[in-house]
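Sorry to interrupt, but I need a hand with the structure work. Could you add the entry underneath, on a fresh line?
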Amino acid sequence: MAILSKEEAQAILKKVLSFSKADSCELSLNGSDGGNIRYARNAVSTAGQISKMSLAVSSTYGKKTGMATINEFDDESLKKVVARSEELAKLAPENPEFMPLLGPQQYADAPTFNAKTAAITPDSRAEMVGKSLQVSKAAKLEAAGFLENSTWFNAIMNSKNLFAYNKSTDISFSVTVRNQEGTGSGYIEQRFNDLDKMDTLALSKIAASKATGSAGAKAIEPGKYTVILEPLAASDMLGNMFRGFDARSADEGRSFMSKKGGGTRIGEQLFSENVNIYSDPMNPDVPTAAWSNDGVPVNKTQWIENGVVKNLSYSRYWAEQKGVKPLPFNRSIVMEGGNQSLEDLIKSTEKGILVTRFWYIRSVDPQTLLLTGLTRDGTFYIENGEIKFPVKNFRFNESPVIMLNNVEALGKPVRTGSGMIPPMKIRDFTFTSLSDAI
């Protein structure tokens, strides 16, 4: 029952609305069905199948709103959850930022669902993990990984006749591979909507190669280096930056997008001219639902163009305060790049550091977006276009804003997490100290 069709979801939501006595009512129905396998030390430790569905009811009297949730769908249970939300609404204080419900909207059908991904079975997952374990066992390495797939739907409806529905699929895989001495480590992580794009064998070979290659790491002096950031490392930095693309935070002086003296930095060139970033729910490589949680349509949006900030996201409330249209932020980020491969970027580097990924990233200064964190799972010294030897991990202190001002070259974008991110060649990246952790 977890995955309902558009018609089935609509029928349930209409029934629930018929029980409402509030001034206005908003419903959110979500369901998912999927499975996973976890393994460690080259052996499967757990496997599971999860199916769930829930309904959230928000009832409003004036500017007072109450919410209740339930995962039972007989008529009596549905009446009970509506009544509970209305009871809570009457007890709630008024919301000073209350926004009335949206009416009907037009939404595009995003290509988020893949039938082959939805049809994954426990045997399919076992076969995919088996390929990963073949790699680590053959190389006398130890692997710990996680494979998960999910099919889900989201539907919203309100008492002003708004209705939206989306069905999606997803498969994600990550694996850490280490040598038996515990002196070398490699990692890979990947996610797709389409099962055919997921190659656990090839990905595990990459992680195994890093595990072998990172053993015997040498210590070199911290400082400013040219770095080659693999897409995963670049994504780690950019994810923190995109949290600042909120207009309200910028207007209120709480983010790096705040302008001195008031206002935002929309229209300013904050990054190198070769930095272009947009989001598009219809992108076939990173599709997402074409509507936000509150029903605002999501369209293709240019966030950065030739290094210039073109847009910030506006909630419905803040858009009304500023007299602009609401603009939801969408996680289907695409950063444009070039045609060079990661290997091409390495070949073009006289001296530098190759970074597989970062971890334990923390904010140092929100106003400048200065971050600190550590490299992990394969950090290598480059000289004359070749990887010469592994190096001990570094702590860095760097801002992605400064990082994107120091872009020397961008490679071909690849799917990384929920975005398309290219490998990056960055000059003057700041490493402040060494770490003995592998």
About this structure: The two ends are 45 Å apart (CA to CA). The mean pLDDT is 96. The longest helix spans residues 75-91.
